[in-house]
Design brief:
about 130 residues, mainly alpha, about 65% helix
Length: about 130
């Protein structure tokens, strides 16, 4: 019989053996849930006028979800994986030891650049 996830959603928040990939996974799930929740609540309450604070929150959620989604799309399609290596004890956890480390740095940099642009737009133009 296969593996059964008995903890469900609570397993997302396990901090044991926490690595960058797990943190990005958790944030990707939470921002996706946050975007959906934000849209539903504001659609029913205001129609669509979230105000300045709502724009900032929505911008943060969408920009992080978008940039981390780009990273996931690239790695799931085989880009930036690097060469496989033979596992030798002691085993290294995670995959951010080669080219993927630079992909994570690029994604975080792109997120920060887009967030600064969104903040500028929301404060001065919006």
């Amino acid at each position: 019989m296969g593996y059964q996830n008995r903890e469900g959603v609570l397993s997302w928040f396990k901090v044991r053996r926490y690595v960058v990939e797990k943190a990005l996974f958790l944030l990707h799930r939470l921002t996706g849930i946050g975007i959906g929740t934000f849209f539903i609540i504001h659609f029913f309450i205001t129609g669509w006028s979230p105000g300045l604070w709502g724009n900032e929150v929505l911008g943060f959620l969408i920009i992080f979800h978008f940039t981390n989604g780009l990273r996931l799309i690239l790695t799931e399609n085989g880009f930036f994986l690097g060469k496989p290596y033979r596992p030798v004890f002691p085993y290294r956890q995670g995959v951010l030891y080669r080219i993927q480390r630079y992909l994570v740095y690029a994604v975080i940099s792109l997120f920060l650049i887009l967030m600064v642009g969104w903040t500028y737009y929301a404060l001065l133009v919006g």
